Amino acid sequence: MSIDRAVLEQLDRVGARLSEGKALRLLEDIAWPREVEERFFAAGEDRLPEIEHRVDRDGLARRIAELRELLGSIDGDAPALGWLRDNVRAQIQAAELLEAAGTREFAERSRALYGGARSRFFGGEVRNIDLAEHLTARLRVHGWDEASDPEEEPLDAGALRDLLAARVAARTPPLDLEIVLDPRITAKVVAGMSRVRIRPEATFASWEAEGLWHHEVETHALTAHNGAAQPRCAFLRSGGPRTTRTQEGLAIFAELYSRSLSIGRLTRLAERVRLVDMAEQGASFLDLYRYLRERGAGRRDAYFDAQRVCRGGLVEGGAPFTKDACYLAGLLEVYAFLAAVLRGGLRDEVELLVCGRIALDDIAVLADLRAAGVLERPRYLPGWLRAWQTLLPYFAFTSFMDGIDLGPVEGHFQELLRVAAEARPVGDGEGSKRRGRPRAG
Asked: For 437, phi and psi rounded to 5 degrees?
């Protein structure tokens, strides 16, 4: 396939401008400083945090004006040019979102980019909150069993750093990624293209460490490196908010397929959708924090999740950062895409998912660009994609299971389910003589 020379010239010109510009660090710019966390706990956990949004609005306004001028310079209606416009708009939207930090408009712009808790899938009836509540209900149904997992010593931050660094060093081809301890971050782990930062006093379960590898390194860092390595489209190292749903869905899929997505982790992802919904309905940071504490979350974990939803918006409620509402939606969309494309054995098209930070809707255009020699194959592949011989059979089988009615199966085992339900202890199980423990996460 060939692409018109005029289109190629515009791709090169606009792509170079996007690549040379400094990527906006939205999440870093709206993150709460560590001292806010310490003041909150020192004051007794009963006062709304005071957040000062230090936003260079003049600089952002200049950047937005430059990008709008660049957007207006793209001439033509070829699909590749439409995709190019989308990428320019993504940078404009990210800058406009940051520009609105600390205002009610921030939440409106956030919802337009990421959706909200009550946003619907593809215009249907199912909403993000519906998926979250379905998963929460399913994950609770574990009963009281004698079988239990052995206790494990958690990894400290240094051990996680050494583990991730060793795995990065063993990767082929080599991935230029530094793993460091950073006492300034508020989250347990913050990952970028060239560095993964770990909070020094944080601890991690073994499954959590494995999940971080697949989520942060094998997805986010990997796609950024693949994008930066594109000779003519290096701007794909940073896709902007328009790619977030796909990128997070891809990262959660990597956890799921590697069997490192635990009950606790998936429950927490679903809970964050509920937090977004609560904040959209007016809940404050304190309301979210207390809700999580009442449900058994630790003090720091409750703080982390409540501040994730309130960062950039209003701590008093009604104007949250809605990014956390799109993780499960992204997983659903990525899984559906893989199920459909892998049925045809289309490995090249699946590889396009990791050629940079892209959105699912980009795949058709990216396939044309690769066929024309504009886009190169990704240099780095995640483990789930390298294991092609096991990936295709998985989706081949699940594609058949999609059409199976499990009603008769449940009916066949109805007596077993009834007996198991009647055997459960009443209450929280403290007085039970059974050796098992509740397994709900």
From this structure: -130, 155
Among residues 34, 110, 138, the alpha carbon closest in space to that of 279 is found at 110
Strands 195-198 and 178-181: parallel
Closest CA to 131 of 294, 262, 266: 266
Angstrom distance (rounded) from CA 182 to CA 268: 24
pLDDT tens digits in sequence order for the chain, 441 residues long: 568 889 999 999 999 999 887 778 899 999 999 999 999 999 999 999 999 988 899 999 999 999 999 999 999 999 999 999 999 999 999 999 999 999 999 999 999 999 999 999 877 888 999 999 999 998 875 555 667 777 789 999 999 999 999 999 999 999 999 999 999 998 899 998 999 999 999 999 999 999 999 999 999 999 999 999 999 999 999 988 999 999 999 999 999 999 999 999 999 999 999 999 999 999 999 999 999 999 999 999 999 999 999 999 999 999 999 999 999 999 999 999 998 888 777 889 999 999 999 999 999 999 999 999 999 999 999 999 999 888 888 888 887 777 788 788 778 887 777 777 676 665 444 333 333 333 333
Q: Helix 79-99 to helix 57-72 angle, to the nearest 10 degrees?
A: 170
367, two tokens: 């396939």
Quick one: which H or E segment has residue 253?
Answer: helix 244-257
Q: What is the CA radius of gyration of the chain?
A: 23
- In whole angstroms, give the CA distance from residue 245 to residue 175: 24
- Identify the sign of the CA torsion 369, 89, 58, 192: negative
Strand partners, 191: 196
For 175-197, b where at least 16 C-beta lie within 10 A, e where not — what string? Answer: bebebeeeeebbbbbbbbbeebb
Q: Which residues contact 104 (CB under 8 A, 6 or more apart)?
A: 313, 314, 318, 319
Pairing relation of β-strands 144-145 and 155-156? unpaired
Beta bridge partner(s), residue 145: 437
The tokens describing 188, both together, are 């347990």
Handedness of CA 321, 284, 37, 267 (dihedral sign): negative
Question: In sequence order, what are the beta bridge partners of 196?
Answer: 179, 191
Q: Angle 104-114/244-257 helices, nearest 10 degrees?
A: 60
Quick check: helix, strand or coil at residue 197?
Answer: strand
